[in-house]
Amino acid sequence: MIVLVIGIVVVVAVVAALVVLRRIPRHDTGVTRFQRHIDALSPEARRAVIDRGTQHPDGRREQRDN
Amino acid sequence: MARDLAIDLGTANTLVYMKGKGIVLNEPSVIALNRQTGEVLATGREAWQMIGRTPGYIVAVRPLRGGAITDFEITERMIRLLLQRVGVSRFSRPKVVICVPSAITEVERRAVTDAARRAGAADAQLIEQPMAAAIGADLPIDEPVGNMVIDIGGGTTESAVISLGGIVALEAVRVGSFDIDAAIQSYVRREHGIAIGERTAEEVKMAIGSAAPTEDEAQAEVRGRDLMTGLPRTVILTPEEVRFAIDDPVSSIISSVARCLAKSPPELAQDFLNRGMFLVGGGGMLRGLKQRIEKETNVPVRMSNMPLEAVVLGAGHCIEHYDALKGMFMGARR
Prior knowledge:
The structure holds 2 protein chains of 2 kinds. Chain A is mainly alpha-helical. Chain A is 73% helix and 0% strand.
Protein backbone atom coordinates (compact mmCIF):
# COMPACT_ATOMS: atom_id res chain seq x y z
CA MET A 1 0.00 0.00 0.00
CA ILE A 2 2.77 2.42 0.95
CA VAL A 3 4.63 1.52 -2.22
CA LEU A 4 1.50 2.28 -4.27
CA VAL A 5 1.05 5.69 -2.60
CA ILE A 6 4.73 6.53 -3.14
CA GLY A 7 4.40 5.46 -6.76
CA ILE A 8 1.33 7.68 -7.31
CA VAL A 9 3.09 10.61 -5.63
CA VAL A 10 6.16 10.15 -7.86
CA VAL A 11 4.02 9.96 -11.01
CA VAL A 12 2.06 13.08 -10.00
CA ALA A 13 5.31 14.90 -9.19
CA VAL A 14 6.83 13.96 -12.54
CA VAL A 15 3.69 15.03 -14.46
CA ALA A 16 3.57 18.32 -12.50
CA ALA A 17 7.25 18.95 -13.21
CA LEU A 18 6.72 18.29 -16.93
CA VAL A 19 3.71 20.65 -17.03
CA VAL A 20 5.68 23.39 -15.27
CA LEU A 21 8.67 22.90 -17.58
CA ARG A 22 6.45 23.11 -20.66
CA ARG A 23 4.97 26.38 -19.44
CA ILE A 24 8.37 28.04 -18.97
CA PRO A 25 9.27 29.81 -22.24
CA ARG A 26 12.31 28.23 -23.86
CA HIS A 27 14.77 31.13 -24.11
CA ASP A 28 17.71 28.93 -24.95
CA THR A 29 16.64 27.98 -28.51
CA GLY A 30 17.49 31.32 -30.09
CA VAL A 31 20.60 31.73 -27.96
CA THR A 32 21.87 28.28 -28.88
CA ARG A 33 21.08 28.75 -32.55
CA PHE A 34 22.81 32.13 -32.64
CA GLN A 35 25.84 30.74 -30.81
CA ARG A 36 26.12 27.88 -33.31
CA HIS A 37 25.87 30.40 -36.14
CA ILE A 38 28.62 32.59 -34.66
CA ASP A 39 30.81 29.59 -33.81
CA ALA A 40 30.51 28.34 -37.39
CA LEU A 41 31.84 31.72 -38.58
CA SER A 42 34.85 31.77 -36.25
CA PRO A 43 38.32 31.86 -37.84
CA GLU A 44 39.01 28.36 -36.46
CA ALA A 45 35.91 26.95 -38.15
CA ARG A 46 36.88 28.62 -41.42
CA ARG A 47 40.53 27.56 -41.36
CA ALA A 48 40.06 24.33 -43.35
CA VAL A 49 38.16 26.05 -46.18
CA ILE A 50 40.56 29.00 -46.37
CA ASP A 51 43.53 26.61 -46.47
CA ARG A 52 41.90 24.71 -49.33
CA GLY A 53 41.63 28.05 -51.17
CA THR A 54 45.30 28.88 -50.74
CA GLN A 55 46.25 25.44 -52.07
CA HIS A 56 44.03 25.93 -55.12
CA PRO A 57 46.30 25.81 -58.20
CA ASP A 58 44.11 27.96 -60.46
CA GLY A 59 45.14 31.50 -61.25
CA ARG A 60 45.24 33.98 -58.41
CA ARG A 61 45.88 37.26 -60.10
CA GLU A 62 46.32 36.34 -63.70
CA GLN A 63 42.56 36.32 -64.14
CA ARG A 64 41.35 39.76 -63.51
CA ASP A 65 37.60 39.52 -63.57
CA ASN A 66 35.06 37.55 -61.68
CA MET B 1 26.30 10.03 -53.39
CA ALA B 2 27.18 13.47 -54.78
CA ARG B 3 29.21 15.87 -52.74
CA ASP B 4 27.45 19.15 -52.04
CA LEU B 5 28.60 22.17 -54.03
CA ALA B 6 28.99 25.92 -53.74
CA ILE B 7 28.85 27.94 -56.96
CA ASP B 8 29.97 31.50 -57.58
CA LEU B 9 27.92 32.17 -60.69
CA GLY B 10 29.69 35.34 -61.75
CA THR B 11 29.09 37.49 -64.80
CA ALA B 12 32.69 36.86 -65.86
CA ASN B 13 33.74 33.57 -64.24
CA THR B 14 32.07 30.61 -62.60
CA LEU B 15 33.82 28.89 -59.71
CA VAL B 16 32.69 25.66 -58.09
CA TYR B 17 33.68 24.49 -54.59
CA MET B 18 33.09 20.84 -53.68
CA LYS B 19 32.43 19.94 -50.05
CA GLY B 20 35.52 18.41 -48.49
CA LYS B 21 37.65 18.98 -51.59
CA GLY B 22 37.95 22.71 -52.32
CA ILE B 23 37.73 24.61 -55.62
CA VAL B 24 37.25 22.11 -58.44
CA LEU B 25 36.34 24.41 -61.31
CA ASN B 26 37.21 27.97 -62.35
CA GLU B 27 36.09 28.88 -65.85
CA PRO B 28 34.74 31.91 -67.72
CA SER B 29 30.91 32.08 -67.70
CA VAL B 30 30.67 31.67 -71.45
CA ILE B 31 28.88 29.17 -73.65
CA ALA B 32 29.22 28.66 -77.41
CA LEU B 33 26.18 27.45 -79.32
CA ASN B 34 25.35 26.42 -82.83
CA ARG B 35 22.85 29.11 -83.84
CA GLN B 36 21.00 26.80 -86.21
CA THR B 37 20.65 23.66 -84.12
CA GLY B 38 20.94 25.15 -80.64
CA GLU B 39 23.59 22.54 -79.83
CA VAL B 40 26.22 23.44 -77.22
CA LEU B 41 29.67 23.52 -78.84
CA ALA B 42 31.85 24.64 -75.95
CA THR B 43 31.71 26.09 -72.46
CA GLY B 44 34.11 27.89 -70.17
CA ARG B 45 37.62 28.74 -71.32
CA GLU B 46 37.16 27.10 -74.71
CA ALA B 47 34.02 29.15 -75.40
CA TRP B 48 35.69 32.34 -74.08
CA GLN B 49 38.41 32.02 -76.70
CA MET B 50 35.70 32.08 -79.36
CA ILE B 51 34.18 35.44 -78.33
CA GLY B 52 34.18 37.79 -81.33
CA ARG B 53 35.96 35.20 -83.52
CA THR B 54 33.13 32.88 -84.54
CA PRO B 55 31.64 32.16 -87.98
CA GLY B 56 28.03 33.15 -88.53
CA TYR B 57 26.48 29.92 -87.32
CA ILE B 58 28.27 29.93 -83.95
CA VAL B 59 27.45 32.32 -81.14
CA ALA B 60 29.61 32.62 -78.01
CA VAL B 61 27.65 34.37 -75.26
CA ARG B 62 27.79 35.27 -71.60
CA PRO B 63 24.34 34.28 -70.31
CA LEU B 64 24.70 36.50 -67.25
CA ARG B 65 24.79 40.27 -67.31
CA GLY B 66 24.98 42.51 -64.29
CA GLY B 67 24.96 39.37 -62.15
CA ALA B 68 21.53 38.39 -63.45
CA ILE B 69 20.44 35.72 -65.87
CA THR B 70 19.65 37.27 -69.23
CA ASP B 71 18.97 33.98 -70.96
CA PHE B 72 17.38 31.43 -68.66
CA GLU B 73 17.60 28.46 -71.01
CA ILE B 74 21.27 29.00 -71.89
CA THR B 75 22.19 29.53 -68.22
CA GLU B 76 20.48 26.29 -67.28
CA ARG B 77 22.39 24.43 -69.95
CA MET B 78 25.65 26.04 -68.84
CA ILE B 79 25.03 25.08 -65.19
CA ARG B 80 24.08 21.55 -66.23
CA LEU B 81 27.34 21.13 -68.18
CA LEU B 82 29.39 22.63 -65.34
CA LEU B 83 27.76 20.26 -62.83
CA GLN B 84 28.40 17.31 -65.15
CA ARG B 85 32.05 18.30 -65.32
CA VAL B 86 32.35 18.11 -61.52
CA GLY B 87 30.68 14.71 -61.39
CA VAL B 88 26.98 15.45 -60.90
CA SER B 89 24.79 12.94 -62.70
CA ARG B 90 21.11 12.01 -62.87
CA PHE B 91 21.65 9.67 -59.94
CA SER B 92 23.70 11.96 -57.73
CA ARG B 93 21.89 15.15 -56.89
CA PRO B 94 23.86 17.42 -54.56
CA LYS B 95 22.74 20.33 -52.40
CA VAL B 96 23.97 23.56 -53.96
CA VAL B 97 24.64 27.01 -52.50
CA ILE B 98 24.86 29.72 -55.17
CA CYS B 99 26.29 33.22 -54.67
CA VAL B 100 24.21 35.96 -56.24
CA PRO B 101 24.27 39.77 -56.17
CA SER B 102 22.30 41.10 -53.22
CA ALA B 103 20.29 43.40 -55.48
CA ILE B 104 18.71 40.70 -57.62
CA THR B 105 14.96 40.70 -57.87
CA GLU B 106 12.59 37.97 -56.71
CA VAL B 107 12.13 36.87 -60.33
CA GLU B 108 15.88 36.68 -60.93
CA ARG B 109 16.31 34.79 -57.66
CA ARG B 110 13.77 32.21 -58.73
CA ALA B 111 15.40 31.97 -62.16
CA VAL B 112 18.76 31.04 -60.57
CA THR B 113 17.35 28.42 -58.19
CA ASP B 114 15.14 26.93 -60.92
CA ALA B 115 18.11 26.76 -63.31
CA ALA B 116 20.20 24.94 -60.67
CA ARG B 117 17.40 22.50 -59.77
CA ARG B 118 16.69 21.69 -63.40
CA ALA B 119 20.42 21.27 -63.96
CA GLY B 120 20.55 18.50 -61.36
CA ALA B 121 20.69 20.05 -57.89
CA ALA B 122 18.54 18.42 -55.20
CA ASP B 123 18.24 21.72 -53.37
CA ALA B 124 19.48 25.19 -54.33
CA GLN B 125 20.01 27.95 -51.79
CA LEU B 126 21.25 31.48 -52.47
CA ILE B 127 23.69 33.60 -50.51
CA GLU B 128 24.54 37.26 -51.05
CA GLN B 129 27.92 37.78 -52.66
CA PRO B 130 29.30 40.32 -50.16
CA MET B 131 28.44 38.03 -47.23
CA ALA B 132 30.14 35.08 -48.94
CA ALA B 133 33.09 37.33 -49.81
CA ALA B 134 33.50 38.42 -46.19
CA ILE B 135 33.49 34.79 -45.00
CA GLY B 136 35.95 33.74 -47.72
CA ALA B 137 38.23 36.75 -47.16
CA ASP B 138 38.68 35.54 -43.58
CA LEU B 139 37.30 38.72 -41.99
CA PRO B 140 36.37 38.45 -38.29
CA ILE B 141 32.65 38.70 -38.99
CA ASP B 142 31.83 36.62 -35.90
CA GLU B 143 32.87 39.56 -33.70
CA PRO B 144 30.82 42.67 -32.87
CA VAL B 145 33.05 44.90 -35.01
CA GLY B 146 32.44 46.60 -38.35
CA ASN B 147 33.86 44.71 -41.33
CA MET B 148 33.41 46.38 -44.67
CA VAL B 149 33.84 44.41 -47.86
CA ILE B 150 33.78 45.80 -51.41
CA ASP B 151 33.20 43.15 -54.08
CA ILE B 152 33.81 44.43 -57.60
CA GLY B 153 32.77 41.77 -60.08
CA GLY B 154 32.26 41.70 -63.82
CA GLY B 155 28.75 43.14 -63.72
CA THR B 156 28.12 44.40 -60.20
CA THR B 157 29.81 46.22 -57.34
CA GLU B 158 28.57 45.45 -53.87
CA SER B 159 29.68 47.07 -50.65
CA ALA B 160 28.50 45.69 -47.34
CA VAL B 161 29.11 46.30 -43.68
CA ILE B 162 29.01 43.04 -41.69
CA SER B 163 29.03 42.50 -37.95
CA LEU B 164 28.10 39.51 -35.80
CA GLY B 165 27.46 37.31 -38.79
CA GLY B 166 24.91 39.56 -40.48
CA ILE B 167 24.71 42.40 -43.01
CA VAL B 168 24.29 45.81 -41.33
CA ALA B 169 24.47 48.07 -44.39
CA LEU B 170 24.51 47.27 -48.07
CA GLU B 171 24.88 49.15 -51.32
CA ALA B 172 24.91 47.58 -54.76
CA VAL B 173 25.24 48.99 -58.27
CA ARG B 174 25.11 47.18 -61.57
CA VAL B 175 28.50 48.53 -62.61
CA GLY B 176 31.54 46.30 -62.79
CA SER B 177 34.66 45.59 -64.77
CA PHE B 178 32.70 44.83 -67.96
CA ASP B 179 31.44 48.40 -67.86
CA ILE B 180 35.07 49.53 -67.66
CA ASP B 181 35.84 47.42 -70.77
CA ALA B 182 32.78 48.85 -72.54
CA ALA B 183 33.91 52.41 -71.68
CA ILE B 184 37.32 51.71 -73.30
CA GLN B 185 35.61 50.28 -76.41
CA SER B 186 33.37 53.28 -76.75
CA TYR B 187 36.23 55.78 -76.17
CA VAL B 188 38.43 54.17 -78.86
CA ARG B 189 35.50 54.17 -81.28
CA ARG B 190 34.63 57.81 -80.56
CA GLU B 191 38.11 59.36 -80.31
CA HIS B 192 40.19 57.19 -82.64
CA GLY B 193 37.53 55.99 -85.07
CA ILE B 194 38.32 52.30 -84.73
CA ALA B 195 36.19 49.43 -83.52
CA ILE B 196 37.72 46.98 -81.03
CA GLY B 197 36.24 43.85 -79.50
CA GLU B 198 35.50 43.26 -75.80
CA ARG B 199 38.52 41.00 -75.38
CA THR B 200 40.85 43.67 -76.79
CA ALA B 201 39.27 46.26 -74.49
CA GLU B 202 39.88 43.95 -71.54
CA GLU B 203 43.50 43.47 -72.61
CA VAL B 204 43.96 47.26 -72.77
CA LYS B 205 42.50 47.60 -69.27
CA MET B 206 44.81 44.92 -67.94
CA ALA B 207 47.87 46.34 -69.70
CA ILE B 208 47.56 50.08 -69.02
CA GLY B 209 44.21 50.70 -67.30
CA SER B 210 44.30 52.55 -63.99
CA ALA B 211 41.96 54.51 -61.75
CA ALA B 212 44.72 56.83 -60.54
CA PRO B 213 48.24 57.67 -61.77
CA THR B 214 50.75 54.92 -60.98
CA GLU B 215 54.55 54.72 -61.09
CA ASP B 216 55.00 52.27 -63.97
CA GLU B 217 52.92 53.73 -66.77
CA ALA B 218 53.33 52.69 -70.39
CA GLN B 219 51.47 53.18 -73.66
CA ALA B 220 49.63 50.43 -75.49
CA GLU B 221 49.28 49.63 -79.16
CA VAL B 222 45.69 48.79 -80.05
CA ARG B 223 44.62 47.11 -83.26
CA GLY B 224 41.10 47.39 -84.56
CA ARG B 225 38.93 48.04 -87.62
CA ASP B 226 38.85 51.55 -89.03
CA LEU B 227 35.23 52.71 -89.02
CA MET B 228 35.68 54.82 -92.18
CA THR B 229 37.69 52.49 -94.42
CA GLY B 230 36.87 49.13 -92.84
CA LEU B 231 40.59 48.27 -92.90
CA PRO B 232 42.71 47.15 -89.94
CA ARG B 233 44.45 50.06 -88.15
CA THR B 234 46.71 50.49 -85.14
CA VAL B 235 46.49 53.34 -82.65
CA ILE B 236 48.50 54.19 -79.55
CA LEU B 237 46.62 54.65 -76.28
CA THR B 238 48.13 56.43 -73.29
CA PRO B 239 47.31 55.63 -69.64
CA GLU B 240 45.84 59.16 -69.25
CA GLU B 241 43.43 58.49 -72.11
CA VAL B 242 42.33 55.19 -70.58
CA ARG B 243 41.87 56.84 -67.16
CA PHE B 244 39.69 59.47 -68.80
CA ALA B 245 37.76 56.80 -70.73
CA ILE B 246 36.93 54.74 -67.64
CA ASP B 247 36.28 57.59 -65.25
CA ASP B 248 32.47 57.23 -65.35
CA PRO B 249 32.24 53.58 -64.25
CA VAL B 250 35.10 54.04 -61.76
CA SER B 251 33.36 57.06 -60.23
CA SER B 252 30.08 55.10 -59.99
CA ILE B 253 31.89 52.32 -58.12
CA ILE B 254 33.50 54.77 -55.68
CA SER B 255 30.20 56.62 -55.13
CA SER B 256 28.49 53.35 -54.18
CA VAL B 257 31.25 52.63 -51.65
CA ALA B 258 30.77 56.10 -50.18
CA ARG B 259 26.99 55.57 -49.95
CA CYS B 260 27.54 52.32 -48.06
CA LEU B 261 29.88 54.07 -45.63
CA ALA B 262 27.24 56.75 -45.10
CA LYS B 263 24.62 54.09 -44.26
CA SER B 264 26.81 52.51 -41.56
CA PRO B 265 25.95 53.02 -37.90
CA PRO B 266 28.48 55.37 -36.24
CA GLU B 267 29.66 52.72 -33.77
CA LEU B 268 30.76 50.50 -36.63
CA ALA B 269 31.99 53.33 -38.86
CA GLN B 270 34.85 54.09 -36.48
CA ASP B 271 36.05 50.49 -36.83
CA PHE B 272 36.73 51.04 -40.55
CA LEU B 273 39.23 53.78 -39.78
CA ASN B 274 41.30 51.29 -37.78
CA ARG B 275 40.69 48.11 -39.73
CA GLY B 276 40.13 49.44 -43.25
CA MET B 277 37.81 48.18 -45.99
CA PHE B 278 38.55 44.93 -47.83
CA LEU B 279 38.55 44.77 -51.59
CA VAL B 280 37.64 41.49 -53.34
CA GLY B 281 36.66 40.51 -56.89
CA GLY B 282 38.58 40.84 -60.14
CA GLY B 283 37.48 44.46 -60.67
CA GLY B 284 39.29 45.45 -57.49
CA MET B 285 42.57 44.55 -59.16
CA LEU B 286 42.40 47.60 -61.44
CA ARG B 287 45.61 49.56 -60.86
CA GLY B 288 45.21 52.63 -58.68
CA LEU B 289 41.64 51.79 -57.62
CA LYS B 290 42.61 51.01 -54.04
CA GLN B 291 44.46 54.34 -53.78
CA ARG B 292 41.59 56.27 -55.36
CA ILE B 293 38.99 54.79 -53.00
CA GLU B 294 41.27 55.61 -50.06
CA LYS B 295 41.72 59.18 -51.30
CA GLU B 296 38.01 59.80 -51.87
CA THR B 297 36.69 58.15 -48.70
CA ASN B 298 39.60 58.80 -46.28
CA VAL B 299 39.36 55.18 -45.18
CA PRO B 300 42.23 52.70 -45.65
CA VAL B 301 41.61 49.93 -48.17
CA ARG B 302 43.17 46.47 -48.05
CA MET B 303 43.27 43.91 -50.82
CA SER B 304 42.11 40.42 -49.93
CA ASN B 305 44.73 37.64 -50.27
CA MET B 306 42.43 35.71 -52.60
CA PRO B 307 40.32 38.34 -54.38
CA LEU B 308 39.05 35.98 -57.07
CA GLU B 309 38.28 33.01 -54.87
CA ALA B 310 36.93 34.73 -51.74
CA VAL B 311 33.26 34.53 -52.77
CA VAL B 312 33.24 30.82 -53.65
CA LEU B 313 35.28 29.98 -50.55
CA GLY B 314 32.72 31.79 -48.40
CA ALA B 315 29.88 29.87 -50.03
CA GLY B 316 31.98 26.72 -49.67
CA HIS B 317 32.20 27.35 -45.95
CA CYS B 318 28.39 27.58 -45.85
CA ILE B 319 28.10 24.20 -47.57
CA GLU B 320 30.59 22.72 -45.07
CA HIS B 321 28.52 24.06 -42.12
CA TYR B 322 25.14 23.88 -43.84
CA ASP B 323 22.93 23.38 -40.77
CA ALA B 324 24.61 26.00 -38.59
CA LEU B 325 24.64 28.62 -41.36
CA LYS B 326 21.38 27.96 -43.18
CA GLY B 327 19.90 31.07 -41.56
CA MET B 328 22.18 33.10 -43.85
CA PHE B 329 20.55 31.90 -47.04
CA MET B 330 18.39 34.45 -48.85
CA GLY B 331 15.12 32.55 -48.54
CA ALA B 332 15.64 31.94 -44.82
CA ARG B 333 15.46 35.64 -43.97
CA ARG B 334 12.46 36.56 -46.05
